């Protein structure tokens, strides 16, 4: 979100839309009943059908009402029925999205349970101890000392324990992924159901929910995935071109255009000036962000380090999942994983801070397992960081721009409201890199 306010000091990077991940234990995954998720999905399908039927009734009444009822009361009734029609439309679409989300979760938990079942069979077959936390231990063996056969048996025990650990790690971490992404999508749907009017902003949110629900089917397939949609942006300045422009609006637009063209440093630098000019161009078209420049060592180094930290935390689990699927199928595997959308603020660089302010990013990785020259599996992880933001204004803020008098966020927001400028989506992705640990 663009801002003209001074940069914050020591701001917490935790964003309200960041997803909280929960650990899954062996007992938790054993208790999961995938068929229960299918039943819940079926109930949402029924609810979507009921909403569609009710919406059709309301639509028929709206069509017939002008011919049988006139006057102020009839006008008010049509307004209320129109809102009800919008609410039922939203309810139908979001109910279908919820059903798709729950059905995708069933597929994901089934795959995790498959890996867990195989891990438990391995534990029983080789007399290994599988703990509820996912840890693996080899029981004490009464091996004769200095016996070559005993040494070989001990090595085999360790190999079996390592294979078991790979599978149980895959099962528990994947179940946590399913739980995390499902919760995220359901939370988005929950927020959308609260909408009452099917305006442009609501349409976009409902569309994102529907696409996100469909994407989960690929994400949880065990064979690949797609980038989940980012969180819905805040309301910004509201609806576009809903009031008359004033002389002050036109003067502010000219002033900001003058500084963006001639003195970018006043606005923060070339990036902030570029984004301001795109806002003033009044097209509303999306704008690409140079993510590699944004994540450069001198720009947003903390974010770059955070991406690497998240990868270091996730890659072992992702590799375990791909290896478990490789062992299960006996075929090369490509799995697409992602850290999930996280919030960040470009607070340490004035140019990027005034260009994007706070934004969301998601690191997506492709984990590939193929047979190596020695026949053992070889794993490669390639990753790319995606960034998304909405260039908009919070009209409730009124902090002036340094060295520019009293041009405030509220005044910039009025340019959108009066049709003098237009808010827009912006985003991009970094180059593809190979993870080296």
Question: What is the strand tally?
Answer: 9
Tell me the span between the first and last alpha carbons: 33 Å
Overall average pLDDT: 86
β content, as a range?
Answer: 5-15%
Structural class: alpha+beta
Any idea what the radius of gyration is? 27 Å
Oligomeric form of this entry?
A: single chain
Q: Spell the H/E element sequence.
A: HHHEEHHHHHEHHEEHEEHEE
- What's the shape? flat
Largest sheet: 7 strands, mixed
Number of helices: 12
Helix content: 55-70%
Instruction: Give the low-confidence spans.
Output: 10-15
Keywords:
alpha+beta, 437 residues, 7-stranded mixed sheet, 55% helix, two-stranded antiparallel ribbon, 12 helices, 12% strand
What does this structure look like?
The protein contains twelve helices and nine strands. Helix content is 55%, strand content 12%. By secondary structure, the chain is of the alpha+beta class. The strands form two sheets. Strands 3, 4, 5, 6, 7, 8 and 9 form a seven-stranded mixed sheet that branches.
């Amino acid at each position: 979100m663009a801002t003209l306010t001074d940069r914050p000091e020591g701001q917490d990077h935790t964003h309200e839309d960041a997803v909280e991940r929960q650990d899954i234990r062996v007992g938790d995954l054993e208790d999961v009943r995938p068929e229960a998720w299918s039943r819940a999905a079926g109930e949402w399908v029924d609810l979507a059908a009921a909403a569609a039927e009710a919406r059709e009734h309301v639509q028929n009444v709206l069509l017939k009402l002008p011919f049988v009822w006139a006057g102020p009361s009839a006008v008010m009734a049509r307004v209320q029925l129109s809102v009800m029609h919008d609410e039922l439309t939203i309810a139908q679409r979001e109910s279908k999205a919820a059903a798709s989300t729950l059905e995708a979760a069933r597929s994901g938990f089934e795959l995790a349970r498959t890996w867990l079942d195989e891990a438990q069979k391995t534990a029983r077959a080789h007399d290994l101890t599988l703990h509820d936390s996912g840890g693996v231990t080899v029981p004490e063996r009464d091996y004769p000392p200095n016996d070559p056969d005993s040494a070989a048996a001990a090595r085999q025990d360790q190999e079996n324990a390592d294979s078991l650990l790979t599978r149980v790690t895959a099962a528990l971490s994947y179940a946590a992924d399913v739980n995390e992404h499902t919760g995220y999508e359901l939370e988005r749907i929950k927020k959308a159901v609260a909408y009452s009017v099917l305006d442009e902003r609501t349409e976009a949110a409902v569309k994102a929910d529907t696409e996100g629900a469909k994407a989960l089917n690929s994400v949880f397939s065990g064979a690949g995935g797609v980038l989940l949609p980012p969180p819905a942006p805040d309301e910004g300045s509201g609806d576009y071109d809903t009031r008359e422009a004033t002389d002050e609006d036109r003067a502010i637009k000219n002033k900001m255009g003058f500084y963006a063209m001639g003195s970018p440093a006043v606005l923060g630098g070339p990036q902030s000036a570029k984004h301001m000019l795109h806002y003033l161009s009044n097209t509303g078209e999306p704008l690409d962000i140079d993510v590699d420049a944004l994540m450069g060592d001198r720009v947003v180094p903390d974010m770059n380090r955070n991406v690497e930290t998240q990868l270091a935390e996730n890659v072992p689990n992702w590799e375990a999942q791909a290896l478990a699927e490789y062992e299960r199928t006996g075929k090369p595997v490509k799995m697409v994983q992602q850290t999930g959308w996280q919030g960040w603020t470009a607070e340490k660089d004035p140019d990027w801070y005034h260009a994007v302010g706070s934004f969301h990013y998601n690191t997506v990785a492709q984990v590939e397992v193929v047979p190596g020259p020695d026949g053992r599996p070889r794993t490669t992880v390639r990753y790319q960081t995606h960034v998304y933001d909405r260039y908009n204004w919070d009209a409730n803020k009124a902090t002036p721009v340094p060295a520019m008098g009293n041009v405030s966020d509220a005044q910039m927001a009025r340019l959108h409201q009066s049709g003098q400028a237009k808010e827009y989506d912006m985003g991009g992705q970094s180059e593809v890199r190979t993870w080296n640990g």
